[in-house]
Fold this protein.
Amino acid sequence: MHTHRGMNSHAFPPLPLPLSRRRNDTSPAAGTSMAGRLGKDEDDLLLYARAGVFAVADGVGSTEGACVASTSAMHALARSVVERRRRSLARRARAAVSDARAALAANQQFPGMATTLAFLLVEGDRAVACHLGDSRIYRLRDGHLDQLTEDHTLATELIRAGYAVPPRARSVLSRCLRGRANDEASYLLLQVEPDDRFLLTTDGVTGVVPDVMLERYLGATDPNAAVDAILGHVHRAQGMDDATAVVVDPGRLRSELAPDTQKVRQIPHPTEAA
């Protein structure tokens, strides 16, 4: 299992190209988080192929509590899925959200902390996609990209109701994972085809990379290459926000996966020299 926490720093070297020297390009999943221009990565991610769970989270706000919220959610999610592995897929997914919420509520140092959450729970040819907030899950099937989640934002609700969206409303979340609130997560039960590829990502990616380019990048030969291409685009665009991408090929998952075939990489965001 891998979780990730970005570095807190203020001066970064240029992003290396290629982005990584991989140990294993046959990995069924890969993920990377890249700090935004402020240098403090409030995103986190989870790659746990043995348990079939993959996730991203984006801490809400710009305080230390945002970092703690996203990390706490990832750890609680992994622990919950393993402890409840004998339950049905849907029940495991719902329990995982409940346990992640409880983990945030139990933190007395940062009351009210919150995070977005998007996770994919895979078992054989079935999966559950779950999300809270504006972190997204996409599926590439037969070369066509579909967004499986709908952002929990004020902008989405206004558009659905037929209203114009004021600029200030575009980044306002209508739901997220909070310890002291019961915002309802959205769940989607999926039938997985052998060649399906999934992307989980925070808004630092989707706010910069258009869907047509995500579709192109996800056509890469393996998850590592797809993640490199997506985060490379964010880097070139000088994206302001933290950006996280996780790519999963469920058809290549095995019940017993050697730890060194799981890969998580962290890339700092470049800033102008002082």
In short: The helical segments are 64-83, 89-105, 154-160, 203-206, 211-217, 223-237. Residues 133 and 175 are 5 Å apart (CA to CA). Residues 64-83 form the longest helix (20 residues). The chain has one domain: 2-150+176-267.
